[in-house]
Automatic annotation (TrEMBL):
InterPro entries: AraC_E-bd (IPR010499), Cass2 (IPR029441), Reg_factor_effector_dom_sf (IPR011256). Residues 14-167 form the AraC effector-binding domain. It comes from Paenibacillus curdlanolyticus YK9. This is Transcription activator effector binding. SMART domains: AraC_E_bind.
Length: 168
């Protein structure tokens, strides 16, 4: 079996490293979905609507990067398609949301591969936290970072960096 066939089946997740990210400001479009009864189709519809409205957002720091901050509880999750902006002052178009993610330390992993994620970068982050005796910070959002030119890539693979906030 050649290397590409192996990647097509299982993907690649890097080793976990820790990084410090400065405060970040985002403008985006949220979608809220119930785990049990949710319409998961609203996720892709929300992404499409965000892509159509992205040109309305001023002060985008890097237009080649799509951020997807999210948080969840046992009942539902909120996922936000967003871009990082320099300022939120008069910069949030109607119907979108602007918010600030405080500076924090993160455990991060890079994933390249098919869906479903295999190996799962979130499992890798959880294992790392357990091995290092670290707790995920509950009050901050997890961040997913995508490059637009590799998002929905024709090779069918996903390219994403996942940042899980950790204490310390």
């Amino acid at each position: 079996m050649n290397e590409q066939s192996q990647v097509d089946k299982t993907g690649f997740a890097s080793e976990v490293v820790t990084v410090h990210l400065d405060e970040m400001k985002f403008v985006g479009l949220p979608v809220i979905v119930s785990f049990k009864d949710g319409d998961y189709g609203t996720i892709s519809k929300t992404k499409q609507l965000f892509m159509e409205r992205m040109g309305e957002i001023e002060g985008v720091i890097n237009p080649d990067i799509l951020w997807a901050p999210w948080y969840a509880n046992d009942i539902m999750f909120t996922y936000v398609y967003a871009v990082q902006v320099a300022s939120l002052d008069n910069n949030v178009p109607e119907g979108l949301v602007g918010f600030t993610q405080p500076a924090a330390r993160y455990a991060t992993v890079h994933y390249e591969g098919p869906l479903p994620w295999e190996p799962d970068p979130y499992e890798r982050l959880q294992t790392y936290r357990q091995q290092e005796g670290l707790e995920q910070v509950k009050g901050l959002m997890v961040l997913e970072k995508y490059e637009f030119d590799r998002e929905d890539h024709p090779d069918g693979l996903l390219y994403v960096d996942v940042f899980g906030p950790i204490q310390g």
